[in-house]
Write a structure and sequence with these properties.
The chain is mainly alpha-helical. Helices cover 76% and strands 0% of the residues. It contains six helices and no strands. The N and C termini lie far apart (74 Å).
């Protein structure tokens, strides 16, 4: 008798969660960049958010707040997505397509020529 070779499928939900969280974090950076560029009030609020916990945030301006928003977006989304997807087998091709689209949008939102068109 031949022993059947058992293949164990590894769950890839954790990888999908990490990809989506990275995309969400960078999209939040892009959106906060757009907001601070298009509105002086938003720029001040985002800067104050960064100054609340980053030493020397005055020297780098609203970028401190943009980075803070990115870290929050990434961290919170990763925690949620990790626990939702960790024991699942998902189609990574769908997650990869969403990731690529999100990264393209995030790049567009921080690209100066595009942002200048919106002013």
């Amino acid at each position: 008798m031949e022993k059947e070779k058992q293949t164990r499928v590894k769950k890839n939900g954790q990888a999908a969660a990490a990809m989506m969280a990275a995309m969400i974090g960078l999209l939040s950076l892009g959106i906060s960049n757009l907001a601070s560029t298009l509105s002086k009030d938003s720029k001040q609020i985002i800067h104050e958010f960064g100054k609340a916990w980053i030493p020397g945030a005055d020297a780098i301006g609203p970028y401190s707040g943009k980075e803070s928003i990115m870290l929050l977006g990434w961290g919170i989304s990763w925690l949620i997505l990790y626990f939702v997807l960790r024991n699942r087998q998902v189609h990574l091709s769908k997650f990869t397509l969403i990731f690529i689209i999100g990264m393209a949008l995030a790049t567009l939102f921080v690209w100066s020529p595009f942002v200048d068109l919106l002013k």
